[in-house]
Design brief:
The protein is an alpha/beta fold. 36% of the residues lie in helices and 18% in strands. The protein contains 20 helices and 22 strands.
Length: 564
Amino acid sequence: MTKHAGQLLVECLVAQGVTHAFGVPGESYLAVLDGFHACRDQIQFVICRQEGGASFMAEAHGKLTGRPGVCFVTRGPGATNASIGVHTAFQDSTPMVLFIGDVASDMRDREAFQEVDFQSFFGPSTKGFAKRVERIDDAKRIPEYVARAFATAMNGRPGPVVLVLPEDMLVQAVQAVALPRVEAVEAWSDPGSLRKLREMLLQAQKPVVIAGGGGWTVQSAQALQRFAENWKLPVGNAFRFQDTFDNHHPLYAGDVGIGINPKLAQRIRESDLILAIGPRLGEMTTGGYTLIDAPRPRQKLVHIHSDPEELNRVYQADLAINASMSAAARSMEVLTAPTTLPWEAWTTAANADYVANLVPQALPGDIDMPAIVAMLQKHLPEDAVLTNGAGNFASWIHRFYRHHGLVKGHKTQLAPTNGAMGYGVPAGIAAAITTGRTAFTIAGDGDFMMNGQELATAMQYGAKSIIVLLNNGMFGTIRMHQEREYPEHISGTPLRNPDFVMLANAFGYVGARVTCTEEFEPQLLAALERSTGTLIEVMLSPEVITTRGTLTAITSAAKARLTK
């Protein structure tokens, strides 16, 4: 049957199992919008309010499902707005496909209206942040390009792919049909490497596992847990992959990222064998490349990663294994362990250090954030999705909230390892739209204002998210560094905020403000009961700044400056 290319493109998405696409409409891809109308019973186009929010939603969808999140934007300004989500997908190893409506073919290379060279902007050949950038000029080849984009996004190290759609191509009449759904290819550990891994374990005295990165499934997380239990290994989760291993498990050692428990940091430095299963071992997970020296670590290093090009790129490993997380975990869980192991006390101590770090110290002001996180732990469902953007506010959740995680059947953490502000609100809305599970977002006053407009998207689609907004009247992370480096020269960090309760009400969310800890729990319980979204503004003292994981009050001199 003859159809226009825009409809064929949407049919190809349906064939790949896509249920939701996120975007902001543009005249450059009207034919695709018409295709969404034709396939409206099979796929939903979620209309967002800004392309940055749309791309964050698509990235969050990719994290939740393991299949590429899909985003549609128009050329030029639309694509550049969406680039923040593409960069997040790149550094977070999340499968994603960004479709960009482009100028017509007969106008290309003239700096036509909103024209951008997307290969130069996004492309890997220019050290951009997409795995592949391609333009579809022949409508008959749409099925080929879409299938390849999905395969590329999922295979090896997962990541984003960009497909550019010339406006005139999308209206071509075509008789092609969609290709079947593609699946990620499993890369398996070779038997020789597994034997060497077992030998290295048998020679170790103080091993540590660091798990994280993209590509984890429920099954691979469960296999990882069985491997750790067989060998009684302490397991830490890489930066913002805290749901990779059950935080309640007696083998859990804590998160390895910003604000790392100093005792865990020292344990990693003292270890004689690090098993890095999945993470890139980037700056945040390695404490600025200080926990593990680059390029040659002091510790023995086994690095397992789904992309061969990532292995030995920064760290020269003693054993590098190219394997997907599913294959790696299933391969390791069958490695037989001896009856007794010399590091059992080491593992027990690592977990004890983690549990001890959950005990907070007294802080100034009327808001006790660790107590608030304890209330979240008590009342949020076990399968709730927790989201955040970037800022000091995220450290409260990272330190005190304990994820059951993938091993219990659900991904429960959506957070940007590239430190992108404004991620949490759209990610929570995407989770609510696509999973129906409880979506909880913690945000700062500066962070919320980056994408708070997406509350309109939530209301339009009946999505319910619960947002806790910590308002301390400043860009807290930058102010923290400023107080340390230039304490007498405060510049660029104070914020004059709107009335967040009234703003939430204007969108249709229920807004509430709490000024002391005791007021929080009733508001949370009410938010969980109601059918619409809720924003709870928490008035946090500017005295309290999170610094490298130690929750502390800043100096009295700084306090005087902050209250001016």
